[in-house]
Here is the input.
Amino acid sequence: MKDLKFLKKGQEILKIALINLGLLLVFLELGSLGWYFVKHKQLFYTRQKAQDKSALGINLEGVRLNQSIVERFHPFFGFIQKPGPDFRPGFKINNYGFISPYDYPFKKTKKNQFVIGIFGGSVASDFSIFQIQNKILPQYLKQVPGLQDKEFIILSFATGGYKQPQQLLILNYFLALGQELDLVVNIDGFNEVALSNINNKNQIDLAMPSNQHILPLISLANNSLSTKAMQATLRIKENKTRINEGLESLQHCSLAACDALTSVYVQNLVNSYRRDVIAFEKERGKQQQDDEGSVIYINKNKSVLEDSAAFEQMAWNWAKSSIFMHKVLSASNVPYFHVLQPNQYYQTKRVFGEAEKQIAFNNDTPYAKAVEIGYPALLSKLPNLEKNKINIFNGVKVFDKTKDAVYVDSCCHYNQAGEVVFSNYVGRSILESLQKDEARSKKK
Here is the structure.
């Protein structure tokens, strides 16, 4: 009898447990449905299934899912991204390591094609991708007489970590190969001070490519990459595999709860990826003590320059490189526009919300001081650029009037809202400049 009572009690407990579990799953599904609607502004069960992993609601900004974290040496450019297909829908890492739908040099296939070259670092690279996808700059250019019916071809000659004189050298290289350009936009400033400052602290010539990017390649070539850097690289590689698997699962979730739980899991993986990237960057930026046997030659300074001298030299490198880009392009009547990019570490009247502050600022970054000292040095060279007839646009205050969050990381990059504001600023500035040139030519 006791066994029978115990069995009945056990069945009741199991029944209650199953009911509670069922209710828990129902409430979890209902909560997930609400969470999905708030996040995506559509119902989960009637949703339009995402074909692209970037549309799954995971913040993948800065995550290189289809490429290694280490760049490749290039004998002329310093370093490039590894060429390969399917970088993202409509783009590849082309034959010269640039993110573009095209291989270079690009040859016009129609008479009405108008080729725009974008030069600079990662901000310029992001800008070119955004223009190809959203066509904001082309919409402004269509307002210029004679350009209304043009097919605008945007070519990126920009890569993360590039700084002057790399833009100047790359421009001349492709012009020598016969690349046609109808208009050139150079977006820079941040790398010129932030990365050149790191060069200086490591006694590397300021005009050499970024020490942050070149040093790990040198270490690999010399078989001297640190253990910590290699461990971080392995963790990054493992995380990328897990992220890809998680995104694949996310695309096939049939329940809202599955989507919610998988999204949290994948976002945590992405956050771990970013932490490992920071760890890798710190390690790969450390100068090896013994490089006498290095197979790579890098120009060095005998000592670390004082900030005043270093940033003055950085600013002149930046200004002179832009002047020479203008000179070589003006010889072929190609308009050249130079944009000084905004950065969160250069203080303007912009008010940052608390949420954006958490994303945009990092107390441990080596970039903050470089921008605080370096941007005023760059700004001091604007009169010289204008004297040399450079169309220079000072974009440091471009985000001052927007209350939306615009920064996506604690370095320098913009989210979609930021890209829209920045694109409109660049497009409007170029249009006004071209309209003024046209008005002047009519008066002659």
